[in-house]
Amino acid sequence: MEEKILSSLxxxxxxxxxxxxxxxxxxxxxxIIGIQRRGGxxxxxxxxxxxxxxxxxxxxxxxxxxxxxxxFSRVGHNPIVSGTKIMFDLEDKKxxxxxxxxxxxxxxxxALDELVDFGRPRAVKLLVLIDRNNREMPIxxxxxxxxxxxxxxxxxxxxxxxxxxxxxxxAVGIKNEME
Length: 179
Hints:
Structural class: alpha/beta
Shape: globular
CATH architecture: 3-Layer(aba) Sandwich
Distance between the termini: 15 Å
Strand order of the largest sheet: 3-2-4-5-6
Number of helices: 5
Strand content: 25-35%
Helix content: 25-40%
Number of domains: 1
């Protein structure tokens, strides 16, 4: 069973509002890096919005944290590896790290581990479309589209056209192993 949290139009508006906050706080001296897959799509959209608002030449990169996860052995035998694409130096740069959903914080921890393999950034700011709380790691976002509370037996899915052929945010029930 699914419960709709955001429509396509609501997602678009949230991203536009986040772009305004990013532009006001970070000005124009930063790099955008999206965590593959859906965070990468959101990062690309954010860059396009910012460019329409007058910021140009914002470097954009993509980070695949699959091999940096602390639960890699539990992910499965055939994990989807999208590839990291960072074609610029991160040394002493401000980075805007973009992801779709922040839950335990483990994905962000893995992303930070991978980022430092490319250089030591001056600062890393975190932007997430959805913050669902219940952290296992002491990680908090700097920019949040929507904070939501869902049951622990639910998963929040951000669906984007480029990956899922639909555009929405939903809470999906996770079946109990006992059922």
